[in-house]
Design goal:
single chain; mainly beta; Tubby Protein, Chain A; 0% helix; 32% strand
Length: 104
């Protein structure tokens, strides 16, 4: 598994792939994107589905795989930041619930 930071973005954004050789959204090994807010205190991980405003069908919209929040810690005082992580609930069959955004 490998990740690549996308440059020229207003917020931090990483592509996550199963192959370190070709980390692009067009590669078959690409499976997720990790995006932060401006301050880097909130991160969202999405699968390789389409953006809500570009998907032709609702089933093609990207799935929300995880949400991570860090407590704001200016200058790194008081030790490491606290972190909360939310992931979709598993069904009785052991499958993850599907969470899709209706907008970006």
């Amino acid at each position: 598994m490998a990740a690549k930071k996308l440059s020229a973005k207003a917020t931090s954004q990483y592509l996550i792939s199963l192959s370190a050789q070709n980390i692009t959204t067009r590669d078959a090994n690409y499976f997720a994107c990790c995006r932060s807010n401006f301050f880097g205190t909130e991160w969202n991980i999405y699968d390789s589905g389409q953006l809500p405003d570009k998907a032709e069908h609702p089933d093609n919209v990207r799935k929300h795989l995880a949400h991570i929040e860090y407590e704001f810690n200016l200058f790194g005082l008081n030790g490491p930041r606290k972190m909360d992580v939310a992931v979709p609930r598993l069904t009785k069959g052991g499958r993850a619930s599907v969470i899709r955004s209706i907008d970006d």
